[in-house]
Sequence to fold (300 residues):
Amino acid sequence: MECPKCRYQRQVTDHAIPDWQCPACGIAYAKALSSQLHSPISASQPTRNSNNHGQRRWLDHFLTFFLALSLLAFGLSWLQKDRLPDHSALVNQINQSPIQTHTTTTPFNFHYHGEDYWIEPVADYELWGMVVTHNNITGITDIMHTKDSVDIKDICVLWGSNTRNSDYQRMSFSSGDFICYYQYPYGVRFQSDELSNNHLLSDNEMVRDAIRQTHIGDQIHLRGMLINYSWQSRPGWVRRTSTTRQDTGNGACEVIFVNDFEILHAPNRAWHTLFTISPWLVILSVVLKLVAFALPTQRQ
Fold:
């Protein structure tokens, strides 16, 4: 018999010592064996608990980093999504002026979201430009439009010599319900007759979707007609288009029935995408942190 504690090999001459006891150290064999059997379990328990706490800390740190990154993405995308690009990033097409020609299209009826409209074509029209501001018919600040408005979006665009340098980046632009506002400091070269606010209508759902997807900084091309239009349910009410780029104030906006609409270049599209998804990432990270906090610590 070898002692589990001191490793003494029991001899035949040790008959005077009880069989259950080690002649060398005096410990009971059974007690020493029991101690060895239980010591690995008790020693490993703190290690397992330490691993569990380490995993929880790692998860908490990861979710905190994920939340901070999501908030940073939201803030950066909000700042960058409506930034006007440098003039060197503009397409050449928007250097040209709009083309307005005589139209042969006769008046027609137009049905949209439960309303009938009378459309009076005034001139065929083609426009290239960069969007510097637009209204938001679903926003709380636009009290004159709803999602059912026939006027899909008002886009304020500039073109020509206004796009041949980056002075427009020093200007401020904003949109009211039907108006485009702009201001610029001394020294900025700006031609007011190379900017227009355009009320856009269309009977083509693909065209309407493209117009809805237009953002500030986008360079666009559209083709259609300058029109006057009225609601048949509101006799006597008419919205009339401007036919010149030199006018200002009330009635100076172009009302366009759009047949073709193209976004030539969208420099801020990635920022808009990030701005759309980042709030959901923030919500997701908060929910995950709450779930992780609510889960009990695993015990073994």
Residues 29-80 form the longest helix (52 residues). Residues 87-267 form one domain. The CA atoms of residues 77 and 277 lie 10 Å apart.
